[in-house]
Fold Extracellular solute-binding protein.
Amino acid sequence: MTIIRRRMALSLPVAAAFAAAPLARPAFAQGARPSGQGAPANYPAGYGEIVAAAQREGSLLIYSVMSPENWRPVIQGFNARYPGIRVETLDLPNTRDVFERYLAERGTNARTGDLLATPDPAGWLQLQARSEILDYKSPEDDAWPAWAKPIPGVYTCSADPLVFIYNKMLLPDAQAPKTFAQFVERAVANKGPWRNKITSYGAHNSGLGYSGNYAFVRKHGDQAWNWFRQLAELQPRWERSGGPMTEKVTSGEYVMGWFVSAITFWPRLNDAARARVLGWNFIGDGQPVIVRGIGVPKGSRNVNAAKLMLDYVASAEGQQAFGRGGLTPARPDVRPGEGIRHTFSSISEAIGGEQNMAFIDYDPKMVTDYDSFLERWRTAYGVR
């Protein structure tokens, strides 16, 4: 059975297909004050009605693919502002699982997530096509550029890169690739020792794998397919999530990985022992960046609490909290520092500008091209 991470025990009915999911740990911020700060003073008149309704609801259930480490500073900040609302997160192992679980529960009128946060543009587009997204405009709306508000009711909670990671004992920093072209050159030159020892998400078994590969191919065209065919000669191994990749690179089972979720990887570097072993680089000639969506589904039973959390995440304070949790703040006025490793702006600066990014965005062709793209990807890598 797939292991699912939770922040606290849930005494809520779910769809029968997921009834066996394991229980979780408490998510309340330690030492939350009995009366919080409340909504910002510049929020519109009438927002207090949303706050009051959320307090009556008293709880919030979030479906995401982020870890407890990512959520912890956000929940602490939210609890300080609205201490009367019990926050729970169900952290699923794969981007597709967020929408599949929600729709399964929605179809049986069972208790489901109140707020969804996941880096799966294709899934968001499909949810939009089903008219399942609440068209909610946040009071923080004016602070966000148009690209960060791709669908009515969906905001960008982070803009997270997919990076190279490597074992420094097997691949010294000086030899670690900083572009995909360098990576392929190094891999081909080390075809023997690196065979079966490089890893990534599979486009065939991960929504993130599909969207990351699609965005990279959209940027590089036939050159990307040529690179993929060269890597296929090393017989890469495909994982469904960043945790196993990081663990196996740490142990030396893998030399390196590509298109690895930085938000899964970066918090591991807080462990000094791991930091001595693990290295990473941006992908300077086509840096995949996940536009991670967050929105309130129409099946939400605690819709007001969900609005409060969405607004908090969209605020500068909420973005900084996600940054301290290892995500990459997308809001333009948030910069690195005070526990924030990178922001969208600093990544752009590090790789020489937005023109060197491969955005995992909300292109409808990502949905319509799925079958043909996946077949070509399988052929390039010899995956059946």
Remarks:
- The chain has two domains: 5-159+291-331, 160-289+345-381.
- The two ends are 23 Å apart (CA to CA).
- The domain at 160-289+345-381 is CATH 3.40.190.10 (D-Maltodextrin-Binding Protein; domain 2).
- The CA atoms of residues 202 and 238 lie 5 Å apart.
